[in-house]
Model the fold of this input.
Amino acid sequence: QVQLVESGGGLVQAGGSLRLSCAASGSIFALNDMGWYRQAPGKQRELVAVITRSGITTYADSVKGRFTISRDNAKNTVWLQMNSLKPEDTAVYYCNVKSQFGIPSWGQGAQVTVSS
Done:
Protein backbone atom coordinates (compact mmCIF):
# COMPACT_ATOMS: atom_id res chain seq x y z
CA GLN A 1 0.00 0.00 0.00
CA VAL A 2 1.21 3.48 -0.89
CA GLN A 3 0.70 6.50 1.36
CA LEU A 4 0.86 10.02 -0.05
CA VAL A 5 1.46 13.25 1.84
CA GLU A 6 0.84 16.54 0.06
CA SER A 7 2.05 19.98 1.04
CA GLY A 8 2.34 23.47 -0.38
CA GLY A 9 -1.19 24.71 -0.96
CA GLY A 10 -2.37 28.13 0.15
CA LEU A 11 -3.75 31.51 -0.78
CA VAL A 12 -2.07 33.62 -3.44
CA GLN A 13 -2.95 36.64 -5.54
CA ALA A 14 -3.50 36.31 -9.27
CA GLY A 15 -0.18 36.22 -11.08
CA GLY A 16 1.56 34.63 -8.13
CA SER A 17 3.19 31.23 -7.73
CA LEU A 18 2.84 28.16 -5.55
CA ARG A 19 4.63 24.83 -5.43
CA LEU A 20 2.91 21.61 -4.44
CA SER A 21 4.79 18.57 -3.19
CA CYS A 22 3.68 14.97 -2.83
CA ALA A 23 5.83 12.37 -1.10
CA ALA A 24 5.04 8.69 -1.38
CA SER A 25 5.90 6.04 1.18
CA GLY A 26 4.98 2.47 1.99
CA SER A 27 5.19 -0.62 -0.18
CA ILE A 28 7.05 0.95 -3.06
CA PHE A 29 9.37 -0.74 -5.50
CA ALA A 30 9.04 1.54 -8.50
CA LEU A 31 6.23 4.00 -9.01
CA ASN A 32 4.85 4.43 -12.50
CA ASP A 33 2.94 7.57 -13.50
CA MET A 34 2.73 10.38 -10.96
CA GLY A 35 0.32 13.22 -11.46
CA TRP A 36 -1.85 16.02 -10.18
CA TYR A 37 -5.59 16.42 -10.49
CA ARG A 38 -7.82 19.22 -9.26
CA GLN A 39 -11.43 19.66 -8.33
CA ALA A 40 -13.17 23.00 -8.12
CA PRO A 41 -16.49 23.40 -6.27
CA GLY A 42 -19.34 21.99 -8.32
CA LYS A 43 -17.02 20.57 -10.95
CA GLN A 44 -15.60 17.17 -11.76
CA ARG A 45 -12.05 16.25 -10.88
CA GLU A 46 -9.78 16.92 -13.83
CA LEU A 47 -6.25 16.03 -14.81
CA VAL A 48 -3.74 18.86 -14.43
CA ALA A 49 -0.45 17.17 -15.27
CA VAL A 50 1.16 13.75 -15.27
CA ILE A 51 4.74 12.56 -15.54
CA THR A 52 5.93 9.08 -16.40
CA ARG A 53 8.77 7.34 -14.63
CA SER A 54 11.04 8.23 -17.56
CA GLY A 55 10.06 11.90 -17.35
CA ILE A 56 7.55 12.30 -20.17
CA THR A 57 5.02 14.97 -19.23
CA THR A 58 1.45 15.74 -20.22
CA TYR A 59 -0.47 18.87 -19.29
CA ALA A 60 -4.03 20.06 -19.47
CA ASP A 61 -4.37 22.79 -22.09
CA SER A 62 -5.48 25.24 -19.42
CA VAL A 63 -2.14 25.06 -17.58
CA LYS A 64 0.35 24.61 -20.41
CA GLY A 65 3.16 27.14 -20.21
CA ARG A 66 2.29 28.05 -16.60
CA PHE A 67 2.62 24.81 -14.62
CA THR A 68 5.58 22.43 -14.50
CA ILE A 69 5.49 18.90 -13.11
CA SER A 70 8.66 17.15 -12.00
CA ARG A 71 9.64 14.11 -9.97
CA ASP A 72 12.52 12.49 -8.14
CA ASN A 73 12.35 8.70 -8.44
CA ALA A 74 14.89 8.16 -5.67
CA LYS A 75 12.77 10.24 -3.26
CA ASN A 76 9.40 9.00 -4.57
CA THR A 77 8.32 12.62 -4.75
CA VAL A 78 6.46 14.66 -7.33
CA TRP A 79 6.13 18.44 -7.48
CA LEU A 80 3.88 20.86 -9.30
CA GLN A 81 5.27 24.34 -9.83
CA MET A 82 2.41 26.70 -10.57
CA ASN A 83 3.21 30.13 -12.00
CA SER A 84 1.03 32.95 -13.31
CA LEU A 85 -1.86 31.64 -11.26
CA LYS A 86 -5.38 32.67 -12.19
CA PRO A 87 -8.57 32.73 -10.10
CA GLU A 88 -9.86 29.83 -12.22
CA ASP A 89 -7.00 27.70 -10.90
CA THR A 90 -8.70 27.74 -7.49
CA ALA A 91 -9.42 24.14 -6.51
CA VAL A 92 -8.38 21.28 -4.28
CA TYR A 93 -5.33 19.67 -5.85
CA TYR A 94 -4.84 15.92 -5.48
CA CYS A 95 -1.70 13.94 -6.01
CA ASN A 96 -2.15 10.61 -7.79
CA VAL A 97 0.44 7.90 -8.24
CA LYS A 98 0.34 4.45 -9.77
CA SER A 99 2.28 1.61 -8.25
CA GLN A 100 4.45 -0.79 -10.22
CA PHE A 101 1.27 -2.87 -10.57
CA GLY A 102 -0.76 0.05 -11.91
CA ILE A 103 -2.79 0.47 -8.72
CA PRO A 104 -3.66 4.15 -8.11
CA SER A 105 -3.35 5.99 -4.80
CA TRP A 106 -4.59 9.48 -3.93
CA GLY A 107 -3.28 12.18 -1.66
CA GLN A 108 -5.43 13.95 0.91
CA GLY A 109 -5.77 17.09 -1.21
CA ALA A 110 -4.29 20.58 -0.95
CA GLN A 111 -6.41 23.71 -1.21
CA VAL A 112 -5.16 26.30 -3.68
CA THR A 113 -6.99 29.62 -3.68
CA VAL A 114 -6.14 32.38 -6.13
CA SER A 115 -7.62 35.79 -5.41
CA SER A 116 -8.28 38.35 -8.12
Observations:
- The chain has a mean pLDDT of 95.
- The two ends are 40 Å apart (CA to CA).
- The CA atoms of residues 42 and 91 lie 10 Å apart.
- The chain is about 0% helix and 55% strand.
